[in-house]
Structure formats: structure tokens, C-alpha cells
């Protein structure tokens, strides 16, 4: 007799000779084991071969973690199926033994399909009319892996539907899989794929959710409880008030462990005498689950989601990208700096002033990288709007809630909200465009109180004060925020050039009015652009001014410090040129010359009460307290709109750029008033002061003689 091991199909022969052949052939349509040895195997071989190869490499969906900058503090998680892949060596032998006892006692003897189990199931089903499945652990893993790797509803249905053809394919793939993978590998994959209830996918999640421990520390009683759940997570749920069914199932598993030699009879009896002691844990999910201690970080988390959904590196569309976030097992470290974030929270009064319709927010960006270092607003990040008052917008319905004290709206930018009119902070764009086109800081104009523009069809803007009338340069015009000087300057350089430059610095037009004015055929006539009639977000403005602080090098806003794949490697993307770069690395480009940016900074020192390196500010400025508060070289610009419906300040040092606003997000016509126009100035100057405390003072680089004029 040959000593060659029998195949799974070969092992059927003794069974068939034992008198089962007739019954199995008759029942082939309902239970297609025989198909493996005949025409069914041939019909399914080609269809399953490719999928079998896929299952040897495909890993189940895994939870993505979001960390604070220390890379250790978990802020929240994203998942559809809460799961963390765990190696078999990091699992207690108890759970491995318990799952074999509960689901497949001959796991280590068969080769993917258990002929004895199939025969037993057939006989039982024939006698009782039942539907025992006889699925081995390998077959169950095949089914779970096909389900988890499905990309369409049809594939999900094919992987889980109760049909003879599906069973044939499943058996064939199980046999093939065991030729490619060891029992240990299959066990590891199985325990990382199985569903245990309570959104716990895989043994790591189950151990944490039910017992608040790792799989390595599971006792026999705990392991038997979890293994018993796989058959029916809802029926045997130990978290139910009545644990009768769960206890009965656990005791069955303990008895089977004893019968298989994993536990002594005495140990099994002692284990069965113990009650099921749970220590339930609810893992955080999505941004609303950020711990109360880090509540304000919820807005940065929300920005992360919006940023992620726009990154081609994670898929072709928003749906694919968010699916990757929830299933890809990424390790994401936010770029938020705890020290700067704490300063921002304190200085916008987010803890004390959440009960105001006027949102006061701030965003801090890092020049040279675009990394967002702080996002804070006087709101509580929460989905619960039940205690919010009615919206201040008279056109809103009576059931529409206001955005305070609780909101998850992206008030700071990064989402689909248009933002707020930014006022004279926009004067930076025509000035920078003029400097980059060859004009000098000394460019002079005798600015009247009211200026009639021939270029803009007779439009006649005026200054905020008669004291602004007179000869102005870029230094004094910017420091005093002289409207008529900047309308004249915009005429010289071209409003369309200022608009295009703002776009290069990251601004986007989100309202129909702004898009219309910014269109190529109308931008040349958008004279009011320099007065900040367009909406912008603090995220955009902080990042645009950060580019000026970085000598004209614009870096896209980015909310992360690092993103790692589930295998510990950095997440990369392919550029149009085919170069692979890390997704979390800064993406920068030179937008204007370094000299033009340095010149703009020199003029921008005038509004803050700082002293420019080369020129004169003209005796006074709009925010002369900033330099004294920050205590180091600082540049920036104030901005208010008609009737002070909103007020802004954008300020920067060589190290940080910050933009703060105050406005009513629900009703832009609800004016904040002149009395609150100092709030953004205070927020920015104090945040820069506190955030930079203890760091060396850096100086701005002066502009060249050529651009000074």
C-alpha cells in the first residue's frame, strides 16, 4: 500500500464505501461535497484560483488611529469594523484552543475540508431536516476574507449567500489555501477576522471591548466566553442582563476544551463554576468621540477628515478615501502643537465664551511647512445641539438651531463653509502682487478721502477716516489701512493679478458671487477685492500669510505630522511625474520672489506697532499694541467689514502665522460692532506670545535696496 497521504477528496472514499455514497449523490444539489471530486471542481477551479491567491496576501480591515503629536496619546479612531491586527504570538494559547474547541475540533487534522464533519452534518440534516454547515475554520476564514475584500455589493452577496455553488467554491478555496498557508497563519487570520459582537471584529477588539485587556492575557474562562460568541454574537451576548445563554455556550466550550485535552476535567469544572465577569469598554469612534480633555481638538480632527477626503493618495473619490480611513489601519499623528493649542484655546476664551452667537476663532500655521499648529474657537465640539438656542438668522426656520454653544461645523475652514468677509486683510494680495511685478515699497500716491476709479467704472470708495488723506507709501498705506491708496495700487498692478495671486496662496471662492467676480473675464474689474469683500476662512488666511513669512514659499495647509501604513511604513503617493512622496511631507512651491515677500513683511510690520527695517509707517497704525504684546518682531494686518459685521487680524512672526476672526456664522448681517473689533487682535497677539514663550527670538530678513526704492 502506498504511504502517500490521502487528499481531502481521497479521504471521502472510506466514507462513501461505508454506505453514504447514495445519500450524498442524491443530496449533491443541496450539499455539494461530491462536486469537489468531479465536474463541480472543474467548473469552479478557474474562478477560485485567483481569489485563493488574493486571500494569502489580503488582510482584514483595520482601525485607523489618530494620535496627539507625542505619537502615543490616542485622540480617536476611525473604523467601520473595530479591529487591530494581532500576531498569533501575541495571543493567549487559551483563545486558540477555545476557538478550535468551539468551531472546529479537527482543525489540526484536516486539510481545509473535514470529511467526517461533512458526513456528520449530512446525516444529521437528513434525519432532522436541519442545516448543519460543517464549515471548518479554514472555510469560515475564506468566507470572511471574501466578504472583507469585497468592493461591490454583488461581491459581498456572492461571499455570504447560502447556495450550493458558494459552498463548492468555499471548499475548493479552503483546500487550496491550506496548500499555501500554515495552520498557524490561518488561525492568526481567522482570529483577526471573526466577529464577536458589539462592533468587535477580531480578537484584539473583542478582548478590549468585553474584558478591557489584550488577547495575550485572556484566561480560559474569558477565552471560552469569546470563542462561544462566534457562532451567534447576539444570541450568546454576555453583556445582556440575562447571561444564561452566554454561560451555557461558554460551558459547552469549556467542556469541549477538556475533551480535547486542553483543560483537565477539574480545571474545566472550576472554570464553569465562575460567573462571567465583564469589564466593558467602548472604543472612541470619529471626531465626536475625542475625550473631553481634548474637546477643542475635535475641530482639528474634523479638518483632518475633510483634508483626507480631498487627497488623491487615498482613492479616486471621497467615498473611496473615507473607506480607506475607516478600514486601512493607518497611524495618523496630528500636527497640532499642544502648547500652541493651549494658548489658542485660552485666548479665544473657548471655555468661557461658548454662549455667544459671535464665533471667535483662530488658526495657527507654520511657515515653511504649512502644518497647522492650532485650531480653536469659542465653541464646544459636539453633535448634541439640543440645548442650542434658535438660529440668529431671521430667514432660518423656527426649528433651526444656532451654532452655539455646541457645533461640529467647520467654522475655522477646511470644510465646505464659505467663511467670512475678511476686510482689509486682503490688502496684502495687491501689495504683494505689485512688489512681485517690480514696484517698490516707496511707491507713492496722494490718497484722497474718496477716490473715483476710472478703471472700475466710476466706483468711488472712501477711507475710514479723514486722517488717512495725504501722501502714502506701501508702509504707511498698509499700516493705516488706506482704502484709496490700495484701490489705486490695485489699478496699477491689475485686480486680476491680485486675485490669481490669492488663489496661488490657497484661497478658494465658495460662493456664487465670489466665483463670478473671480472668473477670468470679470476679475479685472473686481476693484473691491482689495477691500476684502470676498469670504475667506481663518485656515486660508493663516496659511497665505505664512507663505509671506516663509519668503514667498507657499506650502499647502496640512493637518498631520506623519501618516504610517499598517505595516509601519510611511504612506506615500505618486506625483504626476511618477515620483513617490510621503503624504505627510510638506508640499511647497515658490509663489513670489523672496525679496517681494520680505518687502511685504516690512510694510506689514507697520500695522502692528513694530518698526520696519527700511521705511516709515507714517506715525500711527491700526493695531499698534501687537508688538508690545508679542514681545518680538511681528507683522500683520487688521480687517473689518461694512458696519463691522466681522473683524479680523492676521499676524505672523518668522516662526508662526495666525489668523483670528469674530463673526456670526449663522447670520453675517448680525454686526459684531466696533467694540469687539479688538478681540481678534488680542487673540492673535497673545497666542503668538504664549505659543512662542521660551523660544529664541528670530528676526525678519530685510528687503533689498532695489525693492525699497
UniProtKB/TrEMBL annotation:
Superkingdom of the source species: Bacteria
GO biological process, one term: cell wall organization
Pfam families linked: Transgly (PF00912), Transpeptidase (PF00905)
Keyword presence, Cell wall biogenesis/degradation: yes
All copies of domain Penicillin-binding protein transpeptidase, residue ranges: 362-665
Protein name: Membrane peptidoglycan carboxypeptidase
InterPro entries: Beta-lactam/transpept-like, Glyco_trans_51, Glycosyltr_51/Transpeptidase, Lysozyme-like_dom_sf, PBP_transglycosylase, PCN-bd_Tpept
Transmembrane segment boundaries: 12-34
Reaction(s) catalysed (UniProt annotation): [GlcNAc-(1->4)-Mur2Ac(oyl-L-Ala-gamma-D-Glu-L-Lys-D-Ala-D-Ala)](n)-di-trans,octa-cis-undecaprenyl diphosphate + beta-D-GlcNAc-(1->4)-Mur2Ac(oyl-L-Ala-gamma-D-Glu-L-Lys-D-Ala-D-Ala)-di-trans,octa-cis-undecaprenyl diphosphate = [GlcNAc-(1->4)-Mur2Ac(oyl-L-Ala-gamma-D-Glu-L-Lys-D-Ala-D-Ala)](n+1)-di-trans,octa-cis-undecaprenyl diphosphate + di-trans,octa-cis-undecaprenyl diphosphate + H(+); Preferential cleavage: (Ac)2-L-Lys-D-Ala-|-D-Ala. Also transpeptidation of peptidyl-alanyl moieties that are N-acyl substituents of D-alanine
Organism of derivation: Micromonospora jinlongensis
GO CC terms, sorted: outer membrane-bounded periplasmic space
Location of the Glycosyl transferase family domain: 74-257
Similarity remark: In the C-terminal section; belongs to the transpeptidase family.
GO molecular function: penicillin binding; peptidoglycan glycosyltransferase activity; serine-type D-Ala-D-Ala carboxypeptidase activity
Entry keyword set: Carboxypeptidase, Cell shape, Cell wall biogenesis/degradation, Glycosyltransferase, Hydrolase, Membrane, Multifunctional enzyme, Peptidoglycan synthesis, Protease, Transferase, Transmembrane, Transmembrane helix
Amino acid at each position: 500500500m502506498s504511504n502517500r497521504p490521502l487528499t481531502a477528496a481521497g479521504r471521502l472514499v472510506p466514507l462513501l464505501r461505508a454506505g453514504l455514497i447514495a445519500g450524498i449523490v442524491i443530496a449533491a444539489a443541496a450539499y455539494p461535497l461530491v462536486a469537489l471530486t468531479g465536474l463541480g471542481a472543474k467548473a469552479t477551479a478557474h474562478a477560485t484560483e485567483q481569489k485563493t491567491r488574493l486571500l494569502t496576501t489580503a488582510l482584514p480591515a483595520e482601525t485607523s488611529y489618530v494620535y496627539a503629536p507625542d505619537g502615543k496619546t490616542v485622540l480617536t479612531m476611525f473604523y467601520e469594523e473595530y479591529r487591530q491586527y494581532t500576531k498569533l504570538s501575541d495571543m493567549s494559547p487559551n483563545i486558540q484552543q477555545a476557538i478550535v474547541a468551539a468551531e472546529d475540533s479537527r482543525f489540526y487534522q484536516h486539510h481545509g475540508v473535514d470529511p467526517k464533519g461533512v458526513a456528520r452534518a449530512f446525516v444529521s440534516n437528513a434525519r432532522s431536516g436541519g442545516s448543519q454547515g460543517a464549515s471548518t475554520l479554514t472555510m469560515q476564514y475564506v468566507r470572511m476574507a471574501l466578504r472583507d475584500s469585497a468592493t461591490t455589493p454583488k461581491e459581498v452577496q456572492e461571499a455570504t449567500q447560502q447556495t450550493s455553488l458558494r459552498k463548492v467554491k468555499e471548499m475548493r478555496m479552503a483546500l487550496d489555501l491550506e496548500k499555501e498557508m500554515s495552520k498557524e497563519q490561518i488561525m492568526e487570520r481567522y482570529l483577526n477576522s471573526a466577529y464577536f459582537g458589539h462592533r468587535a471584529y477580531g480578537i484584539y477588539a473583542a478582548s478590549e471591548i468585553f474584558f478591557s485587556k489584550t488577547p495575550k492575557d485572556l484566561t480560559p474562562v474569558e477565552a471560552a466566553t469569546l470563542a462561544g460568541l462566534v457562532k451567534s454574537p447576539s444570541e450568546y451576548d454576555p453583556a445582556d442582563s440575562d447571561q444564561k445563554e452566554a454561560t451555557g455556550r461558554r460551558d459547552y466550550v469549556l467542556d469541549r476544551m477538556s475533551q480535547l485535552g486542553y483543560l483537565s476535567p477539574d480545571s474545566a469544572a472550576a472554570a464553569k463554576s465562575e460567573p462571567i465577569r465583564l469589564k466593558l469598554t467602548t472604543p472612541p469612534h470619529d471626531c465626536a468621540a475625542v475625550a473631553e480633555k481634548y474637546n477643542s481638538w475635535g475641530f482639528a480632527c474634523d479638518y483632518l477628515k475633510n483634508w483626507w477626503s480631498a487627497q488623491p493618495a487615498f482613492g479616486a473619490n471621497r467615498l473611496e478615501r473615507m473607506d480607506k480611513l475607516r478600514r486601512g489601519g493607518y497611524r495618523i499623528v496630528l500636527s497640532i502643537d499642544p502648547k500652541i493649542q493651549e494658548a489658542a484655546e485660552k485666548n479665544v476664551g473657548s471655555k468661557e465664551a461658548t454662549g455667544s452667537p459671535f464665533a471667535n476663532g483662530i488658526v495657527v500655521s507654520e511657515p515653511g511647512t504649512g502644518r497647522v499648529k492650532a485650531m480653536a474657537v469659542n465653541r464646544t465640539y459636539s453633535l448634541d445641539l439640543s440645548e442650542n438656542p434658535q438660529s440668529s438668522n431671521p430667514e432660518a426656520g423656527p426649528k433651526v438651531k444656532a451654532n452655539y454653544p455646541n457645533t461640529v461645523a467647520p467654522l475655522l475652514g477646511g470644510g465646505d463653509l464659505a467663511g467670512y468677509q475678511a476686510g482689509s486683510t486682503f490688502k496684502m494680495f495687491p501689495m504683494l502682487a505689485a512688489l512681485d511685478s517690480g514696484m517698490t515699497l516707496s511707491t507713492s500716491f496722494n490718497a484722497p478721502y474718496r477716490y473715483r476709479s476710472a478703471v472700475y467704472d466710476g466706483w468711488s470708495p472712501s477711507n475710514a477716516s479723514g486722517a488717512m488723506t495725504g501722501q502714502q507709501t506701501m508702509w504707511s498705506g498698509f499700516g493705516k489701512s488706506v482704502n484709496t491708496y490700495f484701490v489705486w495700487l490695485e489699478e496699477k498692478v491689475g485686480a486680476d493679478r491680485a486675485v490669481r495671486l490669492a488663489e496661488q496662496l490657497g484661497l478658494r471662492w465658495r460662493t456664487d458671487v465670489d466665483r463670478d467676480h473671480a472668473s477670468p473675464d470679470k476679475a479685472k474689474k473686481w476693484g473691491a477685492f482689495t477691500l476684502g469683500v470676498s469670504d475667506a476662512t481663518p485656515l486660508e488666511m493663516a496659511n497665505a500669510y505664512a507663505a509671506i513669512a516663509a519668503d514667498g514659499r507657499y506650502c499647502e495647509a496640512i493637518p498631520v505630522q506623519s501618516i504610517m501604513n499598517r505595516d509601519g511604513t510611511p504612506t506615500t503617493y505618486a506625483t504626476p511625474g511618477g515620483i513617490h512622496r510621503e503624504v505627510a511631507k510638506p508640499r511647497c512651491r515658490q509663489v513670489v520672489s523672496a525679496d517681494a515677500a520680505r518687502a511685504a513683511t516690512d510694510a506689514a510690520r507697520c500695522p502692528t506697532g513694530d518698526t520696519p527695517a527700511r521705511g516709515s509707517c507714517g506715525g500711527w497704525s491700526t493695531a499698534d499694541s501687537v508688538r508690545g504684546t508679542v514681545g518680538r518682531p511681528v507683522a500683520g494686518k487688521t480687517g473689518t467689514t461694512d458696519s463691522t459685521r466681522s473683524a479680523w487680524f492676521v499676524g505672523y512672526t518668522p516662526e508662526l502665522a495666525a489668523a483670528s476672526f469674530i463673526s456670526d456664522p449663522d447670520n453675517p448681517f448680525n454686526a459684531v460692532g466696533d467694540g469687539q473689533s479688538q478681540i481678534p487682535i488680542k487673540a492673535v497677539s497673545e497666542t503668538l506670545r504664549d505659543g512662542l514663550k521660551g523660544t529664541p527670538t528670530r528676526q525678519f530678513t530685510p528687503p533689498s535696496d532695489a525693492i525699497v526704492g
